[in-house]
Specification:
Elements (H helix, E strand, L loop, with lengths): L1 E6 L6 H11 L3 E4 H9 L9 H18 L4 E5 L7 H12 L4 E8 L2 H7 L3 H5 L6 H10 L11 E5 L5 H11 L1
Parallel strand pairs: 1-3, 1-4, 2-3, 4-5
Helix pairs in contact: 1-8, 2-3, 3-4, 5-7
């Protein structure tokens, strides 16, 4: 099993590029919004059980995919150093089943993120689509540093199409 993790700030193109990769490979998409949307059916964001349940759903999916040898592409926003232990837990959960983990960091300028965040397609996905919310996230968290405890392939997406970014990732794989 391969676990391919795309991480980067909101609106950098993680899901758009993931769809390009999915169309050309045997990877199954496990976009971070899938688990969030699923859990929101029962618990509102901010409820004491919300994050705990999202994490449990994700960990179960990672482990079961690893056991079944299903290649998985997961997308998430990673904040350094806040999410370091979470990333380590994800990686270790699949490695103990013999899985290969590949990290790809997608990044671009704050100006480009601000342009992209209001794209109407983001509303349909229940993704962050407000420039003020994006600005607050970028001010409050380090969303641009690579995860330090594992090799990442970093791609700057400011002027790259999703197709070109996917080609670069497929070449890297």
């Amino acid at each position: 099993m391969k676990l391919l993790i795309f991480y980067g700030p909101p609106a950098v193109g993680k899901l758009t590029v993931a769809k390009e990769i999915i169309a050309q490979t045997n990877f199954k998409l496990f976009d971070n919004h899938i688990s969030i949307d699923f859990v929101e059916k029962v618990f509102e964001r901010g409820h004491a059980s919300f994050s705990k349940t999202v994490d449990a759903v994700r960990m179960l999916m990672f482990e079961e995919a690893a056991k079944a040898n299903v290649d998985l592409l997961f997308t998430l926003v990673y904040a350094h150093p806040v999410d370091d232990s979470y990333m380590k837990t994800i990686i270790e959960s699949v490695q103990k089943h013999g899985a290969e983990v590949i990290l790809v960091q997608l990044t671009c300028s704050k100006e480009e993120l601000t342009k992209r965040v209001t794209n109407p397609s983001r509303l349909a996905k229940n993704a962050i689509s407000d420039t003020a919310v994006l600005r607050d996230l970028l001010n409050d968290y380090d969303l641009f540093s690579p995860y330090p405890d594992f090799e990442s392939h970093t791609i700057i997406t400011d002027s790259k199409s999703a197709a070109d970014t996917a080609k670069e990732i497929l070449k890297y794989l």
